[in-house]
Design brief:
By secondary structure, this protein is an alpha/beta fold. It has two domains: 92 residues, no CATH class; 219 residues, Rossmann fold (3-Layer(aba) Sandwich). The chain contains eleven helices and eleven strands. Strands 3-2-4-11-10-9-8-7-1-5-6 form an eleven-stranded mixed β-sheet, sandwiched between helices. Strand 10 and strand 11 form a beta hairpin. Helix 1 packs across helix 3.
Length: 325
């Protein structure tokens, strides 16, 4: 075997084992079993090695396999991958991991609410734009704070636990303008696109699936504008369209990890040059200023930064905010 290929398969196996042990364990028994099983299966690892490097991530591969019928045990996943690889591969190449978790708004709301109002929201990596609608959801924080849109309680109710010293927002943000940028925006009226978003939700997460459906219904009533394009290219000119009488907030969640380090740095420089504020919700390993905050606890694997300053740990799906330690 070519040494480069061998090195590549070893890296794939290690990455899947790490995913199973660090991200899926205690969160999704199915994905934990699939990831660990795959990491020990040279035949399947060899298949994944034929994919472009950016298409090998577990979330995408597992969703594509489920799209083509994989359920249950690792043996069933293996059968689907080996027997339907042509179809699964085509889906992997044609689609992307565009998980759009509206619940992240609950963790971002305290930071949005403390900024000068009204707000102009610009989300990079917006997918279907569900996180562009924080003012259209209801919030229930575990300190007893309840917030609803001006026109009454929403069908989408987001809960968030607050750690010691972390305060709930005192008000709903006042959003007067919103836009998003995504390489492949998800049209909220398209049934196939909505079905793929649901497939990206992990198997056991029925509550997230129900919330996604409800948030998509909210979005369909007045779809946010999401521009197709590269975030580095489109950010300056899209930001220039925001109204002058509103505070521009450029934000993103679980997006920058898909850029290489050079492009992450370029993005940070680009957003810092804009007026307004930058709200980042990413894994602790994504930016140099948060790498010292990496913890093994999956619930503290993301960090919220405001204008490049780390502010809090956050659950990747918005379930909790915790103080930095």
């Amino acid at each position: 075997m070519d040494p480069a290929i061998s090195l590549g398969t070893a890296g794939i196996a290690a990455a899947y084992r790490a995913f199973g042990e660090r991200e899926a364990r205690g969160v999704s028994p199915t994905y934990e079993a699939w990831a660990i099983g795959l990491s020990e299966d040279p035949d399947v690892v060899d298949l994944l090695a034929t994919l472009p490097r950016g298409k090998r991530q577990p979330n995408l591969v597992f969703a594509a396999a489920r799209w083509h019928g994989a359920v249950g045990s690792y043996r069933e996943l293996r059968t689907t991958l080996l027997e339907r690889w042509t179809d699964v591969r085509q889906t992997i190449l044609a689609r992307a991991t565009q998980t759009n978790e509206a619940a992240r708004c609950a963790a971002l709301l305290p930071f949005l609410a403390e900024l000068p109002q009204p707000l102009a929201l610009l989300e990079v990596g917006a997918s279907a734009g569900l996180c562009l609608l924080p003012d259209r959801y209801s919030y229930r924080y575990d300190d007893g704070t309840n917030l609803d849109p001006d026109d009454g309680a929403s069908d989408v109710v987001l809960s968030c636990a607050l750690g010691p010293g972390v305060s709930a927002p005192a008000r709903m943000p006042h959003v007067v303008w919103r836009a998003g940028i995504d390489l492949a925006p998800v049209p909220v009226a398209d049934d196939d696109a909505r079905a793929w978003l649901e497939m990206l939700v992990w198997p056991e997460h029925d509550d997230r699936r129900a919330r996604l459906r409800a948030a998509l219904a909210v979005a369909r009533r007045d779809p946010p504008h999401v521009l197709a394009g590269d975030l580095l290219e489109e950010l300056p000119r899209t930001a220039a369209e925001a109204p002058d009488n509103a505070t521009l907030v450029v934000f993103h969640s679980a997006v920058l990890a898909y850029l290489d380090p050079a492009n992450r740095s370029a993005f940070a420089e680009e957003v810092a040059a804009l007026p307004g504020h930058w709200l980042s919700n990413e894994g602790a390993r994504v930016f140099p200023q948060t790498t010292h905050l990496v913890q093994d606890d999956a619930a503290r694997s993301f960090v919220v930064m405001v204008d490049g300053v780390p502010r809090a740990y956050v659950d990747p799906h918005g379930r909790s905010l915790a103080p930095l330690t």
